[in-house]
Design brief:
four-stranded antiparallel beta sheet; 15 helices; 48% helix; 15% strand; globular
Length: 465
Amino acid sequence: MAIQLYNSLTKKKETFVPMEEGKVKMYVCGPTVYNYIHIGNARPPIVYDMVRRYLEYRGYEVEFISNFTDVDDKIIRAAHELGEDVFAVANRFIEEYHNDTCALGVKKANKHPRVTETIPEIIDFVAKLIEKEYAYESGGDVYFRTKKFEGYGKLSSQSIDDLRSGARIEVDERKEDPLDFVLWKAAKEGEVSWESPWGDGRPGWHIECSAMVKKYLGDTIDIHAGGKDLSFPHHENEIAQSEALTGKTMANYWMHNGFININNEKMSKSLGNFVLAHDIIRQHSAEVVRFFMLTAHYRSPINFSDELLDGAKNGLERLRTAVSSLEHRLGESADYGEKAEWLTKISQLKETFINEMDDDFNSANGISVMFDLAKEANRYLREEQTSKEVLQAFIALFDELAGVLGIVVRTQAELLDTEIEALIEERNEARRSRNFKRADEIRDQLKDQGILLEDTAQGVRWKRG
C-alpha cells in the first residue's frame, strides 16, 4: 500500500508520489524567534518530525528544511524592551528552540536557514517580481499585486473577491488594492535594515519562505507544511509570489496540523492560558509531551490539560513496562516454546502499523497498534515456556515502531542531558580518587533530579525515579 496524504490544497487524500523516486523535498515553516516557543509552536516540529521519520522508515531520502524568522517586528520590539541587540535576541531564542525541540525528540533539519542569511536571494526575488509586474514599489515599500495572480485564494478555497469583501484591512494609500501584501518594508528610524534598489529596508514575512524554498529545494517541492494558522494568509501568499515568479507549482502537497486548546479553550495571551513548552517539559517530561502529541491525528485539534498529560504518562508507562518485562524474561529464557504462531502475530502487528501510518500518517492509530503489541507481549509472558527468539522479536518491533514515532520505550537507552552526564562522570572520578563524600553528594543531587544510580560490577546503571 502506498502512502495516502491529505493535501490541504485539493482538500482530499491523495496517493503520495514524489517528483523523484525515492527522494522527498520537504519544507516546514519554522518559528519567529523573539521568545521561548509555546506548546502550540511545539506541535508542528513534533508532527513533521514524525512525518519525516515515517517517510525515511518507508525508504525515502528526505531533504528536510525548516527556517527561522530572525528579523521581524516582534523581534525588534522584544529587543527594545530587553535593551538588547536584535541579533542577540534572535540567536538566544534559536538556541532555546533547539534545546526544547531536541528534548522533544525532534531531529534537526538538514538546514535551518535564517532570513538574515537570505537577504540577497530575497532582494533578487522581489526585483524579478517587479520586472514581471507582479509587484510594485510605493514609498520605499514593495507590494505584491494579488489581483494579477489568477490563482490567489486557491489554498483557502476563496475567490479574491470574497477575500476582499471579507477582509478586515486598514486603508493604506500606498497600496493599489487592500489585499496587496508587503514584500519589502522601508526601514524605520533606528531599525535594522539592508540596502536594496528601493532604499534601506527589510523583508516582509511571506517572501522569506518563498526565497528559502527556491534557494535550498528548487522551484517545486514535494511537501510544504506548517500549522493550520499559516494556511491564510502566509501560505496563500507564498504560493502567489512563488508561482508568479517561476510559473511552476510551488508544492505538490500541502500539510497543516490542527490547533491546540488549553483546558478546552483556545490558547491565547488574553485568556492567560499561554503555556511555554519548556515549562510543560519540566513539569511532565519531554517524552510524555511528545507521546501525548502523537496520540491525536495531526490534523485534529488537540486539547491540552494536566489530566490528559497524566493519562499519556500512564499510557507510555504501559509500553515501557511491557518492554521491561520482556527484557527481564529474556535474561532467564531458553530457546523453547511455541514460536511460529507468535512470530506470525508479531509480523501481522507490524503490517497493521504500516497500514495505519500509510493512511495520512495516523500516529494515533499507530500508537494503538503499539498498545496491541504490549497486550500480546503480556499474554505471551504468561506462558510457562518462552522462546528467546519470540522475546527478541517483540522487543525488536517495539524498538522499531518507537523509533518511527520518536518515542522512548526503553528508558535505559535514553540519553542523559549534558549536565547530568557531566555529574555522573564527576562522580565516577570522585570514586576513583576515593572522594566518597563528593560521590555521595552527586548521587543525592541526581536523585533530586529524578535520576537513580545503581553501582554494579558492570559499571553505573541509572533509571528515572
